[in-house]
Amino acid sequence: MTGQTNSDTKRRALLEGISVLDFSVSLMAPVTTRLLAAYGAEVIKVESIRQHEITRVSAPYKDNLVGMNRSLIFNANNTGKYGITLNLKHPRSGEIVNRLITWADVIVENFVPGAAKKFGLDYEHLQKAKPEVIVVDFSAQGLTGPYSKHPGYGFQILALTCFSHFTGWPDREPAAPVGSYTDFLCPPLAVCAILSALDHRRLTGRGQHIDLSQLEISPHFFIPAILDYGANGRVQIRCGNRSPYASPHGAYRCRGDDRWCVIAVCNEKEWEAFCKVTGSPEWARDPKFSTLLGRKSNEDELDRLVEAWTVSFVPEEVMNRMQAAGVAAGIVQTTEEMVNDPQLKHREHFEISKHPEVGSIICENPAFQLSKCKARWPRPAPCLGEHNEFVYTKLLGIPDEEFAQLLNDGVFE
Amino acid sequence: MLHYRVLDLTDEKGMVCGKFLGDLGADVIKVERPGGDPARNIGPFYHDIPDLEKSLYWFAYNTNKRGITLNIETADGKEIFKKLVKTADFVIESFPPGCLDDLGLGYFQLSEIKPQIIMTSITSFGQTGPYKDYKGCDLVAMAMGGFMYVCGDTDRPPVRISVEQAYAVAGAHAAAGSLFANHYRTLTGVGQWVDVSIQECIPTIMAMEIGFWDGLGEIVRRSGPRRRRMGVYQRDIWPCKDGHLGFRVLGGDLGAATLQGLADWMDTENMAGPLKGMDFESLDMANVTQAEVDNWEETLCQFFRKHTKDEIYKKALEEHMLICPGYTPEDLVEYEQLRERDFWDDVQYPELEASIRHPRSFFKSSETQCQIRRRAPLIGEHNEEIYGQELGISRQELALLKEGGII
């Protein structure tokens, strides 16, 4: 990079020159590589006509028309990547795989247990071919251990990792937190592992094998409850919206169709402010609510009284009046309200990506902004096999005649 | 793996970020106000004894950090902090926007002292925008981030996840943002400012809801144990004899084997009902009615209610069925898979004459294993080590600073 001017240096994409080979098939891994693509990594997503990413055939589809390139989830989670098809079961696929391995800095996999070895994509083989390669295996329960071969998807793992136990009301069966919740806890930490591995390689020249599972990522998101069990023998359980240290603390019905506002009163100053906003009605001056202990022991009654006040206002008004007085409050936003939220709009959290088959779709930007490097996806999510010719002939340098021959032989199916 | 120094000024909003960087090997110094960070008041507490040195919440998210006390609002405190910044690679903070600027310790001020510094700021709504000064908390983030509206029972208010998630999720994103900035620094030699919005972290943990709105103009509503799929609402969570299960009715390549396995098992107890003889290979959930789904679910629930989650999980493992038990924290700590993978680390707390079980690492690596190298720091535990031995502040000066309420 000698001879570059300062302004060129500034414009340089953060992960420019980092090549990621992406064999992933569902949520946790594709979302990870999408983040890498956002900052300039060149990501090739490898699928085949039979073994494509699972979310290609997951609802919702644009306009309810089912199609391999029409899933909103797939298209939102794969922006910025090249897409190729390669039949790993074809006898001639090995030579192509070897070229791809030579090209890659990072190889991302989430095959069903055992499949990587069958295709020569296990770490042992990859490391022989390219010692400095970084291989990241995403799985439900890890690559070793007695349960490693049990296939696991998000709807199972969120139950296994206590998240359903922790969601809903104590007197009822659990509510399901958003689908595949544990899948989405993994990408930022997977990015941390990959960037640390790249840094380690820069300093030592060494690659590594990363074994990353939903089962082992998830408990990091509720360590206090694990310590509470270990130290105190207490098994925490779901408790609606209650908080051990704040009251009122909940979602309160407001004016309108199924509209709600959350309010959290965390200390005495906020309680006083809360009372002022509600016009200090008689109940707010009742001594049984004047202390935190009092509010906690009369919480059901308090919640009813709070709601009798909030129900006269739209949630925007409750939020703005509470916030103006210094009390934490927020609209329980529908997806539509969230997409149009003035704060998220200002932050450009959502942006429109143009996709050749489905037209414009809403994509998410990262939850963080870097002052010197903007996240930017160079292209929409790939249609199945969209970049075969470019990747095989231009990036890997396969001569045109050979490409045509391989194509005819069905290697790229 | 990481050989960097991190100064961690955060409260509960941001302290998870430093924990993850510490797990990766960074030398993280938690900078608390004299007397201790207010997050030490958050429970639960060890043996339920409320004490600044017994907060399990604090223990959970401050492992792999050293701890010093410093009042950065005083002139001496600022000077010491700037000295520390010169030795550091990252500063993480979670003050309200503008707060550090007012103290003369904002990103632009610190980058003059050290252009390579990366500052990561974690706030409820981000550094800019109409809500930047609004007050946030876990509940507000889950509401404003679109999570709560789709979570909970139909006939009750929307709910969050009872164990607070927003700060931990933000911590993970903040760590990722910090390391992106670090990669850029290795190329260019310059640092930058990483602005993390806790609100913006919440949509990232949702899957289909934005798609339903975007693609079909449909607003997904909360539906208890069920979730919106294809054309119907169907269960993800199922009752069983002693708790619940995670499972979904799916046909085709993905789900047929599971349903066939269940139907065969149910048939041995004459409970297969409408599932008996069904062709699950050709079952396409895009073309089923809500009434059909409800009927199958009722049959399955009746069967599951007769069996424990362990029985069902055992059978699922034998038959490779896509079912998992709904675990409690107790079940998880006892889970054989995690024990076999050496996931738990009994961290020693000599002051309490006890050990407490922590998760060891969020991934495994062939190269360097993440470890809990140290428990969370006591208040000012490493003042002597860092101020005295590393910065060379004399004992007399330290005594003066202590008396002045600066450390």
Summary of the model, kept short:
By secondary structure, chain A is α/β, with parallel strands linked by helices. Helices cover 39% and strands 15% of the residues of chain A.
Any descriptors?
heterodimer; A: 413 residues; alpha/beta; Rossmann fold; formyl-coa transferase, domain 3; 6-stranded parallel sheet; 3-stranded antiparallel sheet; 19 helices; disordered N terminus; B: 407 residues; 2 domains; elongated
SSE topology sketch:
The complex is a heterodimer of chains A (413) and B (407).
Chain A: H1 6-11, E1 19-23, H2 28-38, E2 42-47, H3 72-77, E3 82-85, H4 93-103, E4 106-109, H5 115-118, H6 123-129, E5 134-139, H7 154-160, H8 181-204, E6 208-213, H9 214-217, H10 223-232, E7 249-253, E8 260-264, H11 268-277, H12 282-285, H13 292-297, H14 299-310, H15 315-324, E9 328-331, H16 335-339, H17 342-346, E10 350-355, E11 359-364, E12 368-370, H18 388-395, H19 400-409
Parallel strand pairs in A: 1-2, 1-4, 2-3, 4-5, 5-6
Antiparallel strand pairs in A: 7-8, 8-9, 10-11
Helix pairs in contact in A: 2-8
Chain B: E1 5-8, H1 15-23, E2 27-32, H2 56-61, E3 65-69, H3 75-86, E4 90-93, H4 99-102, H5 107-113, E5 118-123, H6 138-144, H7 166-188, E6 193-197, H8 198-201, H9 209-216, E7 226-229, E8 232-235, E9 237-240, E10 243-247, H10 252-268, H11 290-304, H12 309-319, E11 323-325, H13 329-334, H14 336-340, E12 344-349, E13 354-359, E14 364-365, H15 383-390, H16 395-403
Parallel strand pairs in B: 1-2, 1-4, 2-3, 4-5, 5-6
Antiparallel strand pairs in B: 7-8, 9-10, 10-11, 12-13
